[in-house]
Amino acid sequence: KKTEQELKDEEMELFTKYYMEWKGGRKSGNTSYTNIPRFYYRLPAEDEILLQKLREESRAVFLQRKSRELLDNEELQNLWFLLDKHQTSPMIGEEAMINYENFLKVGEKAGPKCKQFFTAKIFAKLLHNDPYGRISIMQFFNYVMRKG
């Protein structure tokens, strides 16, 4: 027969084992923490010329790619022209408005760089208590200029 102390020790051992398995402790074989990707790389030292050149070149390529994504002046003018052409009446004071249907039409005609701005999420974000379910063309255009 086991003594009372041995029974308590055995009970505590089983409790700890099952608790760690339930909690997701490391004893259960959960090794997801070993798969965390590396996200920090130290800056190259002054004597590591090749690494410095690689860093400069990769930064330049990244900035060129981002620059190509930006809308140039001609594309912005074309977007404004399309938005103005597809505005939905009635105007609110001096402010031109556009409904979702026309918003999507402009998105199809505006070109591939503008496609990212013609989403339901962005339309909903700019929608403010309009009884006809429209957004302000000026607010949308300013949004594009800030984000793009």
From TrEMBL:
It comes from the Eukaryota. It is found in: Cytoplasm. It comes from Chloroceryle aenea (American pygmy kingfisher). GO terms for cellular component: centrosome; cytoplasm; spindle. Keywords: Cytoplasm. PANTHER family: SERINE/THREONINE-PROTEIN PHOSPHATASE 2A REGULATORY SUBUNIT B'' SUBUNIT GAMMA, SERINE_THREONINE-PROTEIN PHOSPHATASE 2A REGULATORY SUBUNIT B'' SUBUNIT GAMMA. One of its GO terms (biological process) is regulation of dephosphorylation. This is P2R3C phosphatase.
